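Researcher: Next sequence.
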Amino acid sequence: ALNINKAVNIISSTNDAFICLDTENTDFFGKEVGSSFTVSRNGSGTNITGIFFNNTQLFIRNADNITLNNITVNNEDLQLGSGVGVTSIRDNSSNIKVLNSYFRTKDNLGHSTLVCAWANNVLIENCTIEAEGTVGNLFYATTYNVEGVENIEPYANYNITFRNNHIDGLKAEVAA
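Model: Next structure:
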């Protein structure tokens, strides 16, 4: 697992940086998610630009002021995101920007591609989300599998702006 616990700028000026953890989830309910690339609370203020995440869960957990720009998250033929999403903005994260990015899921046994789970002030703009085969939701705003969310009044997700994005699920199948 990789945990970003200080504000950093992770940039590929040539757009060919590659991270692949290849860790398969062991359950369907978010309890054993395995290794992930996580920006945690102390990593607030982090910017990630031009990075390719292959078969790698990308989590923003209880962090603020994060920008993901021109990233690719590809999940193919591997069970990732079980109960939480392959890319998941969660656990009281706020002021998050996801810009100009590409998310692709193919045959991951029915788990969501891009998730907001107790997230606020999120902008998802100029992104493409594509799916093929047996996948879950392509974009999902939820409170499922979020610890502590039951104590939040009145809303856990708010001010999520989804603008100028392209979603293509024409090759997707419903998970059984």
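Model: The first strand starts at residue 2 and ends at 4. The CA atoms of residues 150 and 156 lie 9 Å apart.
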